[in-house]
Design goal:
Two copies of one chain form a homodimer. The first copy, chain A, is 40% helix and 25% strand. By secondary structure, chain A is α/β, with parallel strands linked by helices. The first copy, chain A, folds into three domains: 169 residues, Molybdenum Cofactor Biosythetic Enzyme, Chain A, CATH 3.40.980; 77 residues, Alpha-Beta Plaits, CATH 3.30.70; 152 residues, CinA-like (Maf protein). In chain A, strand 16 and strand 17 form a beta hairpin. In chain A, helix 1 runs parallel beside helix 5, helix 2 crosses helix 3 and helix 6 packs across helix 7. Chains A and B meet through helix 1, strand 2, helix 2, helix 6 and strand 10 of A and helix 1, strand 2, helix 2, helix 9 and strand 14 of B.
Chain lengths: 413, 413
């Protein structure tokens, strides 16, 4: 069974606001086994909104609208749905009385304009609103159209108390289960080439691949008659995909790489320090995004200039002059220096050219060296990235975290 | 002139993700005087997407699609738009060659699946992608349909370089002008209380206040018959607002605080270093986000643990024990240490409790000290922030940059 969500309100079409009610509604609908197939935001325009409702209802069994139930002229959802379904709006004196009583409890008088909120689409069930003046509405037609208020705390309370019980009776017993694999260290196109022969054999589960900043998420969504069936199907399709991706998979529960590496460090009773050139603090920032990271993250050095590499980390100026700041030798000397000074188990160093212009070293933009020092050895890895300054810096931190992850797994960096 | 924005991608129909590209696109379209009247998110479904394109084009002069231009099977935007417009897809060998060359620059071989990205809608203009493999497309029909890649940094670069110049020729009059003031160092509600008596007198310009992470943007949008009129109106309304906000305004051209402070440092031929505790690298990261920041940013220390504060920065262990890591005394010692070791003109130090739990110092979550050392003195400032770990860290970097900005203006930190 499919649903579409329509948010009404011109303020959601500005450059500053997004509709977040749909995220909550999507989570609840997915739990019921209902797929959300489209979302829309429409301004305060009755005819456009009516058209959107009509189109959604022609495709989907459930259409949920949020917002536009307030008392003012620009609240047009009631009128739009009535128009879309070709039904009348009927005044309900008992709703007006309830709104009036609510105002009285706040020691205020109901203003005339609030009477607009007492109009109900012919044949609709009224959904009481415990947290505001605007009642919701539940209308059955070819499918179900649900009108909910826009304020998130009103919408959530109404959906949970009034809509979920009704939807449970309506929705056939389907269950959706998801497998999420997070992968790093390979381009999206290589990954797809590798695993598409597996997932393309199945229409269910649906596979989605999402990539950005050196991170790939592989989502498998199984939709079956029971939770058990969905889980069995995910296991069947997931197993060969996991086998193909192997240790490129770093997370199976959605955790980002800094959390995964942090847990590995913590379990190993190990500590880490960083020495950053082109990332200027972004690597330390990622480590310390994680609450409790002080258990394993000791600190580090931002050695943006050559002088700082020499003075703070003790990199040999002759080595620096000979190989340049962007070299595996300098990266290794930085890592060794950071480890010696902090006494951390592991030290990660990154050096490279983030752009937009190439530096004095004449290494091209996107050249990156990551070095890892541990009690036994110090090894540097080279990579060439494409893109702008932000992308190159993000890829570099992802690469550095992955070099450490692989070392902690007992494999070569 | 109206526009609609359609984001393609099943991942944007999950409970976790929202489409944020549309916010950027909306801001740019509004600047041109184009109103966004509807937005939609459609899953990876060719026929549904085609239907959405057809419907949008029947209502609006400009339809922008984002996403679904990748190399994989679930990237269906090209096919969907071709279907909607009843046009063929044509293979462009020169695009395939460019993608192949891009792979070659990364010392990799193009995989077969990337050939999908070389298909172009008949009659469309190809929009080159400097930052990824997927080219965009510009198709003129009854209106304009624009296909952009989903990754925000690719989309932004392509829209700015390829689409804005074309749209400027297309959109009738340029009668919208905007004044943007960026403000820091006061809460949004105080700011609104201060300036609303001015802006509420005007329906035109429209005033929007947008706040987040210690940063406030005040947008005034004037829409007039001519550019001259719009500019005169902005000057009239902007002047009293600027007078009220005074030196809390740090930027009038949209530049973020790290760019403003960077330019002040560069003009003063001064350098800066950092010593970070709770921010773990975020302050250095913000300084070095700016291209060319190596002219004034020397480097710094991530002293997350107490031992690192002593060993790397030379903070007196007795002072640390007596006042605690989260104190103005420790912040000042950190700043003085960083300045001494790097020989920078200015050193900024931050220490505090980012949470979620309070540390051994028993200072409450959100307690922050920022110290600034310069050739004459070292002074610490205390602030108490509310919110989660990320918010507190963001506020802290904003506060630190502003402390330096005010010192560089010749005022007390």
């Amino acid at each position: 069974m499919n649903a579409e969500i329509i948010a009404a309100g011109s303020e959601l079409l500005t450059a500053e606001r997004v509709d977040t009610n749909s995220l909550y509604l999507t989570a609840e609908l997915n739990n019921l086994g209902v797929e959300v197939t489209a979302k829309a935001v429409i301004g305060d325009d009755r005819d456009r909104l009516a058209e959107a409702v009509r189109a959604a209802l022609s495709r989907s069994a459930i259409v949920i609208l949020s917002g536009g139930l307030g008392p003012t002229e620009d609240d047009v959802t009631r009128e739009a749905v009535a128009l879309a379904l070709d039904r009348k709006l009927v005044f309900h004196p008992e709703i007006a009385a309830q709104i009036e009583a609510r105002f009285a409890r706040m020691k205020r008088k109901m203003v005339e304009v609030n009477r607009r909120q007492a109009f109900v689409i012919e044949g609709a069930d009224v959904l009481p609103n415990d947290r505001g003046t605007a009642p919701g509405q539940w209308v059955e037609e070819s499918g179900v159209v649900i009108l909910l208020p826009g304020p998130p705390h009103e919408l959530k309370a109404m959906f949970e108390r009034q809509c979920l019980p009704r939807l449970r009776r309506l929705v056939p017993d389907h269950s959706i289960r998801t497998l999420l694999l997070r992968v790093t260290g390979m381009p999206e196109s290589d990954l797809d080439q590798l695993i598409s022969p597996v997932y393309k054999k199945y229409l269910n589960p649906v596979t989605t691949i999402l990539a950005g900043n050196g991170d790939i998420q592989v989502h498998l969504r199984a939709r079956c008659a029971s939770v058990g069936e969905a889980e069995a199907l995910l296991a069947e399709v997931g197993a060969p995909i996991e086998a193909l991706l192997g240790d490129k998979i770093y997370s199976r529960n959605g955790d980002p790489l800094e959390v995964v590496v942090g847990e590995m460090l913590h379990k190993a009773h190990a500590t880490v320090a960083v020495a950053e050139s082109l990332t200027g603090g972004m690597l330390g920032e990622r480590f310390t995004t994680v609450p409790g990271s002080s258990r394993y993250f000791l600190g580090g050095f931002l050695t943006y200039s050559n002088a700082m590499k020499v003075e703070l980390l003790g990199v040999d100026p002759q080595l620096l002059a000979h190989f340049g700041a962007v070299s595996s030798e300098t990266a290794e000397a930085m890592a060794a220096g950071a480890r010696r000074l902090t006494k951390a188990t592991y030290a990660l160093a990154v050096t490279g050219v983030a752009g937009p212009e190439s530096g004095e070293d004449a290494a091209p933009v996107g050249t990156v060296y990551v070095a890892l020092a541990d009690p036994e050895k110090t090894v540097a890895v080279h990579r060439q990235f494409l893109g702008d300054r932000t992308r190159i810096r993000m890829f570099t931190t992802q690469m550095a975290l992955d070099v450490l992850r692989r070392r902690l797994m007992g494999r070569a960096g």
